[in-house]
Design brief:
single chain, 162 residues, mainly alpha, 434 Repressor (Amino-terminal Domain), 53% helix, rod-shaped
Amino acid sequence: MTTDVGQDAGMSVVPVGPGAILRGERERQSLSIDSVAKTMNVTTDLVVALETNDFGFFDAPVFARGYLRQYGSLLSLATDQLLAAYAGIADDVLSTPSLIPPMRVEPIAPQWLRWKRPFMWAAAALVVLLLGLWSVRAMRGIHLSFGESDRPAVAPAQSSDH
């Protein structure tokens, strides 16, 4: 859907994005952005992004199209019209190269886990060391006794059968 802005003045045709359609219908139905956000179970920032055609807010075009469908259904609009309006401006928005590379967020370990990590590594190393000593001892047939010896305390009585 396009509107003719200044056709007589020699200006070009400006495409109307889905945001203007959504905002106009929301205002016509006297709905607030907060009520729409609560009904859609999204943040108000997402609703504002849809209404201002800020599709860079979404991680991928598929999310923008999905929210456009959901918002259009909420307002009883024809979703085909919204998606056609989105397709009209999405090519311009998506084909514009950005000099800013996408930000990569590395996960950070929770605070309670950061100080425990060295102890966990030390415990794992100790377990591996003990298992290694145990396997070497078992392979060589070495018997280690801790505490009482395995020999009986009293020697067995000798028989007097000569």
